Each structure stands twice: as structure tokens, then as C-alpha cells.
Amino acid sequence: MRILAGKAPGFDRVFLHPVTAEVLTTDRYTPTAGIKRFLQARYVRCAFPGCRRPAMRSEIDHHREYANGGKTDGDNLGPCCTRHHVTRHAAGWTVEQLPGGRLKFTAPSGKVYIEDPPPRVMFIPDGDPDPNPESDTGLEPDRESPAIFPPF
Question: Minimal CA–CA distance to 80: which of 41, 51, 100?
Fold first, then answer.
């Protein structure tokens, strides 16, 4: 073990979820495959306002720069296509991640754009468990009627 540790060029801290053991954050610049999957599932597309390029074909952008202390985790990363990644840095756009994955983009002009991640799960109120409206009347449907049951 000492030989292995003595020859290692450095060490990286890896922070894991205590129950699922999913990698939450690392000290590296490059995000893990798990973090990339999470971001692609959360945002679906490039996070820049108005862009529709798929997240799977986008780069992973640090909202707070890694060189300035930004972490490589889901709370500081988002997908950004190459065009908008370059635009954001070169033109002076800023990004702040709000709770729930919402992103607050501020243009160089000062105009603010809020981007919400698309809804992933939609819950529909539980209505009548029996979608057959005839069951509400308490009457049996006419099983001889060709309007209800085709003759085949």
C-alpha cells in the first residue's frame, strides 16, 4: 500500500451519497458519469435561455468557475452547448443556480432570464378508479346492445 500511495501523483476526494453510494461531488474538474447522467436527465437540453440543443450533445459548464472555487457537483454544473458555453464566458453572462435546478442567467446588459428545468414527473389527481361511466349509475350495461359491444 505504501508503494502504491508513494507513487501516486495525487489524491482526489470523492463524496458519496450515504445510502445509494452515488458520487455527489469530487475535487476534480471533470464531472463523473453519474453527475453527467443526472444533469442530462434534469435539464434535457442546453440550459442557455432559448436554446434547444439536447443536453446529451452539450458540454458541462461550471456556473461558478472551478478556478475560482466552484465545485464539480450538480449544484454548480449545467449543460451548455459549445456555442453558448463560449458566448457565456466571452460576452460576460453570469449564471446562478437557484433551488430546484432553476437557473438565473444575467446578460451583460443586466437583463435576467430564469430557466426552469422541464418537469419530469407529473402527478394527476386520482379520480374515479373505474373509468367506465356506466358503473356510476349502478346499472349493468346492456350486453346485447351493438352500440356497446361489437357483434364479433
Answer: 51
